[in-house]
UniProtKB/TrEMBL annotation:
This is PDR/VanB family oxidoreductase. SUPFAM superfamilies: 2Fe-2S ferredoxin-like, Ferredoxin reductase-like, C-terminal NADP-linked domain, Riboflavin synthase domain-like. Keywords: 2Fe-2S, Flavoprotein, FMN, Iron, Iron-sulfur, Metal-binding, Oxidoreductase. Residues 231-316 form the 2Fe-2S ferredoxin-type domain. It comes from Paraburkholderia agricolaris. It comes from the Bacteria. Its cofactor is FMN. Residues 1-100 form the FAD-binding FR-type domain.
């Protein structure tokens, strides 16, 4: 864990603030690659993930951006209550959304606050002289984060911005943007779940290979559990059998038996609670595993996923 101080806070768009974090000691912060994120530990035991989006020239500081949402479960609200000079604890950078080395061309698609990892990617690709294009859709200009950085000469010609309230300047045509796939092209998408699913759907319709499609979700699309059937979790290491009731997550059922599984987002997005499945068929409800990984049924995320079989035997 790393202790950092909030050096500066800026209003960069409507309801979006950026936070510049610096080490509280003389030690250097670990380096990171474009697409990486950190876990931010907040009061009340909250842990939230935020993409690192500082410009390449920034030394020994991390920058994250946080959208305050009306339906916040506490994370974004607590972040927006922070003040300059306060100290918080973060993890070292993690990267589940890396750029593919030596891609012939990269297509970056951002919806809303999803610009944060993709802006960092665009700036790194520009530094490398790589071929790329960035498409950024937002409700209105006032809600477009980091618009000033997108106007930098190294990004301006490759960046395309679209605003829901200004259709006259153009709209994002996913079918056209995702046309003409090839093995050397890679597509990266981040934003609201609906935006990501629409983008991936257009890419698959155009014939993109799954290994060339990369996505990062900020929130899951969890199914209602009101009518979900009860199932059993059998813990292979102890033989303990735990019933997971309708309307209860596997994590909650395990906790009641004193079984602690590390969690973070609790929405099937971050992968912190990823657990090996030894037998049985999971009902995958996460946004972390790829379709190929889900089809293997050898891992599931107990924070949100359930079971299609009556029992899952897990490596706990």
């Amino acid at each position: 864990m790393i202790n950092v101080t909030v050096r500066s806070i800026k209003e960069i768009a409507t309801c979006i603030r950026s936070f510049e974090l610096v080490p509280t000691t003389d030690e250097s912060l670990p380096p990171f690659e474009a697409g990486a994120h950190i876990d931010v530990h907040l009061s009340g035991g909250l842990i939230r993930q935020y993409s690192l989006c500082g410009p390449p020239q920034l030394n020994n500081a991390y920058v994250i951006a946080v959208l305050e949402t009306l339906d916040s479960k506490g994370g974004s609200r607590t972040m927006h209550e922070l003040r300059e000079g306060e100290s918080i604890t973060i993890s070292e950078p993690k990267n589940h959304f890396p750029l593919t080395a030596n891609a012939r061309h990269s297509i970056l698609l951002a919806g809303g606050i999803g610009i944060t990892p993709l802006l960092c990617m665009a700036e790194r690709l520009a530094l490398q002289g790589a071929s790329f294009e960035l498409h950024y859709a937002a409700r209105e200009q006032a809600r477009a984060a980091f618009a000033d950085r997108l106007m930098h000469p190294s990004l301006k010609t490759a960046s395309h911005l679209y605003f829901d309230n200004e259709p006259s300047i153009g709209t994002l045509d996913l079918a056209r943007t995702c046309a003409n796939p090839c093995s050397g092209k890679h597509l990266y998408v981040c934003g609201p779940a609906g935006f990501i699913e629409a983008t991936l759907g257009a890419a698959r319709q155009a014939g993109w290979a799954e290994e060339n499609l990369h996505r990062e979700y900020f929130a899951g699309m969890l199914k209602a559990d009101d009518e979900s059937a009860t199932f059993r979790l059998k813990l292979a290491k102890s033989g303990l059998v735990v019933d997971v009731q309708s309307g209860q997550t596997a994590i909650q059922a395990l906790a009641l038996q004193g079984i602690d599984v590390p969690t973070s987002c609790e929405q099937g997005v971050c992968g912190t609670c990823l657990t090996r499945v030894l037998d049985g068929v999971p009902d995958h409800r996460d946004m972390y595993l790829t379709n190929e990984e889900r089809a293997r049924n050898d891992y599931f995320l107990p924070c949100c996923s359930r079971a299609k079989s009556e029992e899952l035997i897990v490596d706990l």
